[in-house]
């Protein structure tokens, strides 16, 4: 039984939610960060002391002891630093994985109505870029802020313990450096964003080229596409350089700032060192503290902006996570022995649209029968079969299986009872065999029966690796007719009581169509056959004229119902189709 996805209970702030969810991990990591920072802040103080011991020409033993102590501190520091990086990294990677999984899971539940309005690129970007932005915000972003605040709190007192007056003086000068750096970082970030947008353009045109290569070739668009690509790629290059230039300024300016700070410190500090008020070791430690302050304080702004980007990304993801599902899994009734399907006064319009696509459609299909549905393109045939398989929600009481309204059936049970071969075939990037059996396992014999049925067995054997040949994106290119027949085999092998073919023979040549149709007829009569109850949708009469019952659909309405002979008598549309297609030599 299928479940609706367990949505992350994000009534609270997403950061708080994930911190709570991985409480043990985050607390351990943050404690390690604190220990790292404490050790990191203490080391200059002890190095300063060692320098003072040397300056005082103390005994070598006490210097050695001091050095050993520093060495141990440094070892501890290295250990904790390693530890928190591992823990923190695994925390934000877990969060990213969680989010990707939730989004993907949700995407599998959303129906065509949702996909209609969302470009694929947007969904890809959501699952890749937005998840990444969120990870950066909750991971490195949070840590930078944490670090910045920590150093802001812990270092000034240490500085103060060395020299109160120096501390005041540096505190007055200090804000300029972070302020200037923060400005530069903002420039870097803005440029980086532009760079990413341009990268998206480059990837979009590459994707379009791969998908549209046939059109590009047949309309000789290669030069134009290449020119377009070159222009976009060049724009991307320029934007990469602009980012790199801003980035290149960063370290020199920071280094320069620190050096200037040190020079100023020498200038303002010299009298106190000379007079002996502050030791030379104290001077050294103080200098180190200035260095340590600059980065985290500078980074506070970056951390904050990373976090706000993460929140913006999260909003986009949340829209998907909260999107309503077209058909909630409501019923728990199971149809065990399919007996009949009846459609009663079914009218339908697509969500958010005004036009009625189906109007008052009724028919009944008993077990073992074959129903043909014919009509011009746009008559509503595909819409009708999509409703029979509950791709879109339908008001209760209009579609009944064994007398039970469709939404009262367990979705799994509905899927076991009725299989649709959609009008557009789709093959996965997997081998032929797996494309036919999907998540189930069938014997080679069962697979052969299905592929013989749709006359594709011999063609599969001609492929380089037969049934093990890889299909899909990078695989062998199949003809439209081959794809259709593989899709049919995929449906037949499941042996569900009702099988619907939506224009499944449209790309198959006339001879193969005849062969498959005669196989269909034979199978339906055979009690052990793969097929029992069948709905065949077609715009070609040749595919349906032998059916027990044929519905003529015209602009969403049932114009007439009957056998081929009856319809030739009473339906103008049917007569027209017949005449047209016999002239074309098809029927
Ligand atoms: N997802 C959709 N949203 C809105 N309108 C649709 C959608 N799918 C099809 N239609 C419209 O419904 C009508 C019937 O289409 P369809 O059922 O595909 O006809 P057929 O299969 O007979 O060619 C067409 O006018 C088509 O434009
Ligand atoms: Mg159709």
Structure, briefly:
Helices cover 63% and strands 9% of the residues.
Q: How many helical elements?
A: 19
Structural classification: alpha/beta
Number of beta strands: 10
How far apart are the first and last residues' alpha carbons, in Å? 44 Å
The first-level CATH class name of the largest domain: Alpha Beta
CATH architecture of the largest domain: 3-Layer(aba) Sandwich
Task: Characterize the structure shown.
The structure is a single chain. This protein has 587 residues and is α/β, with parallel strands linked by helices. It folds into 2 domains: 14-163 and 278-321, ABC transporter transmembrane region fold, CATH 1.20.1560; 340-583, P-loop containing nucleotide triphosphate hydrolases (Rossmann fold). Helices cover 63% and strands 9% of the residues. The protein is built from 19 helices and 10 strands. It has helices at residues 14-21, 23-55, 60-109, 112-116, 120-162, 164-173, 176-211, 213-218, 222-275, 280-321, 381-388, 411-417, 432-437, 444-453, 457-461, 480-492, 510-525, 564-570, 572-583; strands at residues 340-348, 358-366, 370-374, 399-401, 404-405, 418-421, 498-502, 533-538, 549-554, 557-562. The strands form 2 sheets. The protein has a 6-stranded mixed sheet with strand order 6-7-8-3-9-10, with helices on both faces. Strands 2-1-4-5 form a 4-stranded antiparallel sheet, covered by helices on one side. A hairpin with a 2-residue loop joins β9 and β10. It is elongated and about 120 Å long. The two termini are 44 Å apart. Mean pLDDT is 88; it is low at 1-6. The site of adenosine-5'-diphosphate has 13 residues, from α4 and α11.
């Amino acid at each position: 039984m299928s479940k609706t996805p367990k949505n992350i209970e994000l009534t609270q702030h997403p950061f708080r939610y994930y911190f709570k969810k991985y409480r043990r991990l985050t607390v351990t990591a943050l404690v390690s960060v604190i220990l790292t920072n404490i050790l990191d802040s203490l080391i200059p103080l002890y190095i300063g002391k060692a320098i003072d011991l040397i300056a005082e020409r103390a005994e070598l033993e006490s210097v050695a002891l001091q050095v050993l102590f520093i060495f141990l501190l440094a070892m501890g520091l290295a250990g904790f630093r390693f530890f928190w990086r591992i823990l923190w990294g695994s925390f934000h990677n877990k969060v990213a994985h969680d989010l990707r999984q939730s989004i993907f899971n949700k995407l599998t539940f959303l129906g065509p109505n949702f996909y209609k309005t969302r470009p694929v690129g947007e969904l890809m970007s959501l699952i890749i870029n937005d998840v990444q932005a969120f990870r950066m915000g909750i991971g490195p972003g949070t840590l930078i802020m944490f670090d910045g605040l920590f150093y802001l709190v812990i270092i000034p007192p240490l500085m103060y313990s060395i020299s109160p007056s120096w501390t005041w003086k540096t505190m007055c000068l200090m804000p300029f450096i972070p302020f200037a750096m923060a400005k530069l970082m903002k420039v870097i970030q803005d440029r980086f964003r532009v760079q990413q947008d341009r990268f998206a353009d480059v990837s979009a045109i590459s994707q379009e080229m791969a998908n549209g290569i046939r059109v590009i070739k047949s309309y000789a668009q290669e030069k134009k596409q290449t020119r377009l690509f070159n222009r976009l790629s060049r724009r991307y290059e320029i934007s990469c350089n602009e980012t790199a230039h801003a980035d290149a300024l960063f370290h020199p300016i920071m280094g320069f700032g620190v050096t200037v700070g040190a020079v100023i410190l020498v200038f303002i500090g010299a009298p106190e060192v000379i007079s002996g008020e502050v030791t030379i070791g104290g001077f050294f430690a103080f200098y180190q503290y200035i260095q340590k302050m600059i980065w985290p304080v500078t980074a506070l702004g970056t951390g904050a902006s990373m976090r706000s980007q993460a929140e913006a990304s999260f909003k986009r993801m949340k829209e998907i996570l909260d999107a309503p599902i077209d058909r909630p899994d409501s019923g728990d009734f199971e149809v065990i022995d399919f007996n009949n399907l009846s459609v009663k006064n079914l009218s339908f319009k697509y969500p958010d649209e005004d036009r009625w696509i189906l109007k008052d459609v009724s028919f009944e299909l008993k077990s073992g029968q074959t129903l043909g549905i014919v009509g011009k393109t746009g008559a509503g045939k595909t819409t009708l079969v999509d409703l029979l398989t509950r791709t879109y929600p339908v008001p209760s009481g209009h579609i009944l299986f064994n007398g039970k309204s469709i939404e009262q059936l367990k979705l799994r049970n509905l899927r076991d009872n009725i299989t649709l071969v959609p009008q557009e075939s789709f093959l996965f990037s997997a081998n032929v065999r797996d494309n036919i059996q999907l998540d189930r396992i069938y014997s080679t014999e069962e697979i052969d029966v299905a592929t013989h049925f749709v006359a594709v067995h011999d063609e599969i054997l001609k492929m380089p690796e037969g049934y093990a040949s890889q299909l899909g994106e990078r695989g062998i290119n199949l003809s439209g007719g081959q794809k259709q027949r593989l899709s049919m085999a995929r449906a037949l092998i499941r042996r569900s009581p009702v099988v619907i073919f939506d224009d499944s023979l449209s790309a198959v040549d006339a001879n193969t169509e005849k062969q498959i149709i005669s196989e269909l007829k034979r199978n339906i009569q055979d009690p052990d056959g793969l097929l029992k109850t069948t709905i065949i949708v077609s715009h070609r009469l040749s595919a349906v004229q032998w059916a027990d019952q044929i519905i003529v659909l015209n602009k969403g309405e049932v114009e007439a119902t009957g056998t081929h002979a009856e319809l030739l008598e009473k339906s103008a549309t049917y007569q027209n189709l017949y005449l047209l297609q016999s002239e074309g030599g098809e029927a």
